[in-house]
Here is the input.
Amino acid sequence: MSATATRLVGGQVGERATFELTAWALDPAARRAGTAELVIRDGVLESIAWLDDPRGLDDRGVIVAPGFLDLHAHLREPGGEAAETVASGLTAAAHGGFTAVCAMPNTTPPIDSAAAIRATLGAAAASGSPVRLLPIGAATAGRAGERLAPLGELVDAGAVAFSDDGSPIQATELFPSALAYAGMLGVPLIDHPEDSAQTVGAEAHDGLAATVLGLRGWPAGAEANAVARDVAVLAEVVRDVPTARLHLTHLSTAESLEHVRRAKAAGLPVTCDVTPHHLALTDEWLAGARRWAWHAIDADGTARDPWRDGAIDAPPYDAALRVNPPLRSPVDARACRLALADGTVAAVATDHAPHTEVDKAVEFGLAKPGIAGIETALGVLIEAVDAGELELETVVRALTIGPARVLGAGGTGAGVAGLVEGRPVDLVVFDRSERWTVEPMALRSKGFGHPLDGRSLPGRVLATIAGGRIAYAGVERD
Amino acid sequence: MSPNPAMVVPARAGDPADSAMGSWPHRHLLDADALTWPQMVRVMDLADEMREIFERRRPRSEALKGVGVTNLFYEASTRTRVSFEVAAKHLSADVVNVSAGGSSIEKGESLLDTMRTLEALGARVLVIRHAVSGAPYLVAREFRGSVINAGDGRHAHPTQALLDLYTLRRHMPEGSLEGRKVVILGDVLHSRVARSNLWTLTAAGADVWVCGPATLLRGFEAWAAAGVGGARRFTVTSDVKAALRGADAVMALRLQQERMAAGLLPSVHEYAVRFGLTTKRLSFASPGCLVMHPGPMNEGVEIAPDVANGPRSLITEQVANGVPVRMAVLALCTAAAA
Here is the structure.
């Protein structure tokens, strides 16, 4: 069946795709899963036929799904081209199965003007990659947190959301204003929830690994407090501006997710995402443990001790693991998976954050925070599925219709995130069971290093088609 | 790197470093957590032999003859740097000292670039002191010789812990710490000495207590519950009397002025009154309770001058013992690198 898939990969990047494929299809928008025959001609999904007879195929082999949408990536252009460019970032995205990527505006200078949005979109067009770049505009001018950025102009130029990601929006008056104004414009405000007063100099999640390693603690409460504040402000703003929408990105603690769960139950227009690394890796990795988060916790929900288990098998302080928010406890990682499963979490976003060797091959506490995970997101998530921690359908939803709904109709070009006949197709074909080895030098991202360096992951992407054009075509194997 | 012949074949019959040969698996010493108890004992035994050289009852060893030992100190240090320098010289090494002031480090050169430069200049052993926890691990990943951690941030100071262990064993009946109550008193949170000592003292079977203000013990209750290495126990308390009651040894830690500025303590005075190691407090301990301090001391703050200079004080002996212990570590690690 893999052979069926490889036949489609003959074309060059950018060419309109023409192929037929019979594979296990997942379409969260249509709530369908099963063997389907797809006919794609000149980039358009001419037909999709769901077969009653699975023809011996199942969800453990080649899978076709709508193309993935990443709500959170750092493409580093302008200003950080040594770490990533729009072109390399979109190529990496395609290699990871993504057909649309929201680019965070914390570049140098920040994306806080219509001209900057147009320049970013121009770079995407010039790259030749068919992967769609969805720009996120800065919420405040210069990301300085002092006054609003020209939000209306940014939306007119193509911004799909606003965020000062990398920093929280601290000023208490500015945050409700940004929420209300973004609501008026029909786009969500994305906040990076962090009470910065509690994280000055922080290096690692405030837990056992930080204590043993002598790393300055990063309290879980620094995130939960910010989430609680954000939700409280949202509750006040929506009374006056019912269209206001808040999206909380890269939530990492059980308590934060519980705040969101309660806010959603109260009917507030809040959504959130988690990253693959926060649901699959934990703070014990800093000490040198290299087991998945679900192996670091007992059935009764108690975190295991990696020293007692003899699970420390790599050198400590790998700067590739330095990330904001930090890798949390096994209990928090499980809360991320549970919140994804119960719908509290709308999307998995990668927080793809590449850095150069200069910024990463340094002392742990001096390394820039970030994991360049857009190419490993699917593999990590399938590991969780294979371990029985998540359903495959949940994962695919969180990579497709979940993030699309966060952006909503106001998100121009966000796509329909479904396998819809008669339209240029956004899809990914991957082999769930085929394993591949993470080698940072072989990844398309320019980012230096990777916490999963040398590790094998399931779920090799065979092809990514964006807007009907070939974005990534795996190596021919027959 | 071609192995230095001097590291493989002892140059002189009867060199104490001969017993550094074989079955020592550690090219680097980054923390005491990597050492098994028999390996710690091996350091102690070799230090006993090295002591003979240090005390000039035997000629210096030639174990590190022609071997470049570079002391790379990113933080100010007198006693540790000099101790390593003296230790390396007693092993006939070529010693170079690099401090952060007046070098390319101040111009922003990365730690790895500095390491490569020093390696190109012949360093085969890098002794590193650094303010950032874990920094020596970064160097050890790429350096072709041996890295010895001389203190990294809050994390570890393994040669200090080994010399503390060595010093304690010399004063305990039959050199055993089994069941002996050893108290680490003071700013445990920020102390690399405390962390490394937790590994060595619990491995030695001591009944280890850590004591200090609640603000300077945060996280240690959870570590105590989990156990050192997931198994070995210690006790955490802010009750100085309970900690000192029946203690066989107490190790006071230096209190930094920054703790007050950071809001962790009201004042130096209040600390001295409540947690300072005074003669009165020491009276709760076992008669003959040993007194230690890794230095440098704030006399009158964490330790009263009469206690620091009293008959039970091992503080200057700790300094002297640092040399043979570091000689042993240097000999063992360079032999493993060869």
Q: What stands out?
A: Chain B has a mean pLDDT of 93. The radius of gyration of chain B is 20 Å. Chain B has 14 helices and nine strands. Chain B touches chain A at residues 110-112, 130, 132-135, 137-138, 140-141, 152-156, 192, 195, 218-220, 222-223, 226-231 (CB under 8 Å).
